[in-house]
Request: fold
Amino acid sequence: AQRVTQPEKLLSVFKGAPVELKCNYSYSGSPELFWYVQYSRQRLQLLLRHISRESIKGFTADLNKGETSFHLKKPFAQEEDSAMYYCALLNNAGNMLTFGGGTRLMVKP
Amino acid sequence: EPEVTQTPSHQVTQMGQEVILRCVPISNHLYFYWYRQILGQKVEFLVSFYNNEISEKSEIFDDQFSVERPDGSNFTLKIRSTKLEDSAMYFCASSPTGAPTQPQHFGDGTRLSIL
Reply:
């Protein structure tokens, strides 16, 4: 069975502060992990995927297999980063995403 | 940029009635998915569909649920006899393949309210 845990339902920071949204996973296979973001009244959008090792909108995430984590980080939060963030794990067959419960990020001015 | 479209945006149905939720995936995509999110809970996988058959399904996807690709563009989710607990946001998604380098693209969702 695969499971994704996001321990914080809400994270509130001030503009310019560093942000870390935590994600831990449990999977017996080789994990493929993603972060999706949902801005207010918009659809779920892919933010980044670990396989690409990319930085999108200043966000990065590193897969740590030893700690089974895929935390999302940004050094300086912006107000427009306020949104719901979901960590997701793709199974090896590539046909099922398992989502974490989501973390609402609020960036205060 | 092409998008997954879902209709209707909100569906209200009496308990016990059948409901069909519709999705138009991105045109060159081959994999299709349904997810749901009960209010206040996490997004849950329901089913994936490839090459005109179910590729994977979750425990939630019981005999009351079915999926169909009736033509070359639509992908539907049918709930045969709705229950109160089926009230949720239902998301359709599509991807070119199942590879992680080609992630799933989501629609805006259909809010299903069972009375």
